[in-house]
Prior knowledge:
The protein is built from six helices and ten strands. The chain has helices spanning 31-40, 42-55, 108-138, 174-186, 195-204, 208-218, and strands at 2-6, 12-15, 21-26, 69-72, 75-83, 91-95, 98-103, 144-148, 155-157, 162-166.
Amino acid sequence: FVLEYRKRKTMSIRIDHTGRVLVAAPRGLAQDKIIELLKSKSKWILNKLKEVEEIGYEEVQKEFVDGEFFMYLGENYPLHIEIYDCIKKPEISMVQNRIYIRTPKNDSELLKKAMEKWYREKCFMTIRQRVDYYKEFVGKEPNNIKVKEQKKRWGSCTSRGDILFNWRCIMAPMEVVDYIVVHEMCHLIHMNHSKMFWQLVESVIPDYKEKRDWLKKYGVFMNW
């Protein structure tokens, strides 16, 4: 297992998509105590490792070529590239279940930046709408909404009442996007993962555990 000491009260165990067992432990916790706790969770760890093996995760390597598939709101769409010498920068649109890029040149780095910008814009627009919808159910709304690069998190909430979202959220199905939005909005009331926090999440998204499990299983495919 990979061990990391942090400023926390309890130990957490996580299995990543490569099958690594990641342990976060309170500073000063003896290693024999950590091993004892890991052994007590051995059945759960082995089941998770088997899950990872069955799914057969592979690192996502996008090439940004014609015909390559990209995920948007839970569906895969083929990329169609068209070269236009007369334009200065790539333009992206969705037409008839395809993602079209009109670009001055077929350069993978240029197309990658354009695709990320497009995802960011779509993500912000969608999340803004979902926040407006769910504020009546949660009872609070954020001061600001930002879409950022957050490879290890889907979202985060600051003590100032700002909510930050990973731009990759927009690749997930809409019901999963809703869960991410509600999760972070509930942190405006409970800045922790206490029982009261999860009760509030469940009152708005009754099947939130299914959405959370979807992210755990398939979130890796949204990471490029």
